[in-house]
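SEQUENCE-TO-STRUCTURE ENTRY
===========================

Backbone structure tokens: a row of integers, each naming the local backbone shape at its residue.

Task: work out the structure tokens from the sequence, keeping to the layout shown below.
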Amino acid sequence: MWYLSTTIHSALDVARRDAATKVFFPCSTVRCAETAVFRTQLARDLGCLLDVDEEVAQWCCLPLALDVGGGVHVPDFVVDYHDGTRLLVDAAEKDGSSEIGEAAASEGIRHRFVLRSEMESGFRLQNAKDLLRYAGHRTPLNDRIRLLAALEEAGSLSIAETFNLFREVQPLTGISWMILHRFIQTNLDESLLGPETVIRRYQSRGLSCVLCQNPRWPPSSGSPTHLQLGRRCASGARFRVEPSRHVVLVLRLPQEANLHEYELASLLLVGVLPKSRRFAVLKPNIDRRGQASVDDILEDFRQARSSLVLWPFDVTIPEVVTLAADHVLDVEPLRPHHLVAAIRRVHGELVGFSCSPWRPPRENRA
């Protein structure tokens, strides 16, 4: 056993040292969490695709060595996805041995081969390489804000229409960096990037726990994100929210909560949240049958860039509101200043309270 462990570690060291002597282009990476080293150009191409995959949180090169039938195999990458999936990946000309997948499974992780034919189909790989040429540059704040403000106003623009917005950096340098760092997005599969390529502001896909990787938006469900204040997941983890263009927070109040306190706290948010956002505090009109009229709510959604909806626990949230909401907060009784701080953090980039596993909303008690 000691000999096998030594052999595995030695093979991993040899693979890393050998890869470190090779240079493949493009040189820059965006989401590689450690030193980027590649054994082949094919592996480098796969790294390019990982950098422009919106589902990928981060990836590492040559992460570990697997004991495969008495031999040793070092996968090209380990990839962490936003939904909590972790995957060992190899770039290959053709499918490899199933023993590698079995060895990975024994380590508690899945493995797959990505074939050259899969990587080179369509326009994505070439577009990724073109973008990564500029990964070592940075779009200055002035140019960045000008472009984001223009997209906020217009919704989308062609690349050619943005050229006059850049004053401190070359337009394609600025656009490439902002695509790679998820300030803006475009369809990389449709065609090669050109003057007519349409760009728009990046839309967040939801939340994932950065410690326990517990997904906040289950991929198999269209249900909204549910966060429970005052509860903890097993790891006590915090989770990150990427800012989106339009934020709707639906605040579900327990019956024992003091509604006036929560209304007061929510009104305070108008002064707490960024001045650049129009923030509306909304409350549904409940009829005698215990059903909510949502026409006014949806109209307010369209008027405000951010909305907070106060919603009683014992009234079912209509599906149209559920689909419009970025977050549904199931709130336990808290002091108003705690609520202000919590919602402010949700609206921002870093959420400061602990998370608990997703659960469906409570049924209508009527």
User: Anything to note?
Assistant: The chain has three domains: 2-120, 124-201, 208-354.
